[in-house]
Amino acid sequence: MLALRNQILRNSFGTHSTNLDSVCSSSCLFGAFNGSPKCRAHSRFSAVAGDVNSGPKRTYQIVVAATREMGIGKEGKLPWKLPSDLKFFKELTATTLDPTKKNAVVMGRKTWESIPLQFRPLPARLNVVLSRSRKVGSANAEKVVVFESISSALESLEQPPYSQSIEKVFVIGGGQVLREALNAPQCDAIHITEIETSIDCDTFIPSIHFSLFQPWYSSQLLVENNVRFAFASYVRVKSSISEPHPCGNGGESSFRSGSDKFEVGSFNFLPKMILERHDENSYLGLVQEIISSGSHKEGEPWNRILSKFDCEMRFNLRKIFPLLTTKEVSWDGVLQEFFRLISGFTKKLPDVIDEIRNNLDDKRIVLSVQNPSDLTLESCNLRLIGPLQLCVANGELSCQTHQPSADMVLTIPLNIASYALLTCTIAHVCGLIPGDLVLKFGEAHVSKTHVRPLQEQLHRLPKPFPILKINPHKKDMDTFVSADFELVSYDPHL
After folding, report:
1. Whose CA is closest to 308, among 332, 331, 324, 291?
2. Is the model's pLDDT at 71 over the cut of 60?
3. Are the C-beta atoms of residues 328 and 414 closer than 8 Å to each other?
4. CATH number for region 12-236
5. Which residues lie closer than 8 Å to 395 by C-beta, 6 or more apart?
6. What is the rounded distance in angstroms from the CA atom of residue 150 to the CA atom of residue 128?
7. Which three-class secondary structure state does DSSP give residue 258?
8. What residue stretches are annotated with the DHFR domain (predicted)?
9. What is the CA radius of gyration of the chain?
10. Cys bridge to 490: 330, 450, 463, 466, which one at CB 3.0-4.6 A?
11. pLDDT confidence of residue 348
12. How many whole angstroms from its chain centre is CA 482?
């Protein structure tokens, strides 16, 4: 499935997450530098010094590891050792689509000097060091490009020979450089290893401006050396800070589309490995697999389908709400489906919520439609829902559903969102964080009449999923109304 989706991604655009200091703790990831005449010592390109806001057109992406308080270091060192973080950093910053090009990694002088001599310069990348004196102390100093400021570095990287030889620019540290670069206009994306474990730090960077940036993807929680962490990427969607959305509080509208339009038209500036991690690819990949290799089943002209058996999709609910972006899905329709869904669970839902609140270790928290015959014809797809199993782990609520049959066009986009809304709402009333939504299908199908519009949809790159906000004052499932749910920044392809 992933290979099929990757082919579509390659057709859609032409051309992960730590700070550099973490690289210094590993002696196995870096070999000898593959030298190039273009990477010899270099003086500052422009005579004009200045900050990153001075206007170079070359943009960059941030790579950093930080705690919840945005702490990145302690006494000049990284206060954690995460092998997966190092691997992620190397893959993200060293991989290019064009094998004839390299990426540039931009760092401050102290960060450069903190790398052990045997590991610098970082291989397969143009190492750019920022130093007011334009000097760096190292036996390999002749292989690093030196500039006085971020703006002068970006200005030079926009010009030949770097404009032809450098694919992407990553700013990787240290503290002063990141404080200047984070949230700046030239910052396209922020790839952050989010450290969940409480760790004492003395070096901090600013928080991400969430009116400018929106989550692209986040990983499940990982644990290494007793440190809990997750990888996440945020992409710029606005050029300037706007007024924050208040949470839905029972007003007249739960969804305002006018202010949610992105000012960024395409996100193909992201590294391929990050583009592929968008959760919408779970849906798109399954659709592509059904169209490419599904079994042909004949029937009436309106009921000829392509079908696959034993299918699964997974969505991470920790930061986003999975409402498809490659086509518009009706938020009002999602709300209607959600309220129909909980009406089918009315007799058992209070018991399940009580069980979650009082017995988090229960392995058999199951919801099932008690009276499917009471459901209306409008919600006939709900009759095909098997039991919904809920699981609590590490303060997170996850949900797994099973449907014997699934129409990937007519019902599944709404079902993804309505099950996600159910999971998020139960988590909300139970004081938990939404975790994963897993949807399993005995059989998933596509009508042959839908193949052509689906093929058009498959050639669109996803956009960031919207954010769900739930009225914080509501804690009883029986009291929710549509206006208690606000969808922020939903800007699908139309």
Report:
1. 291
2. yes
3. no
4. 3.40.430.10
5. 432, 433
6. 10
7. helix
8. 59-236
9. 25
10. 466
11. 82
12. 27
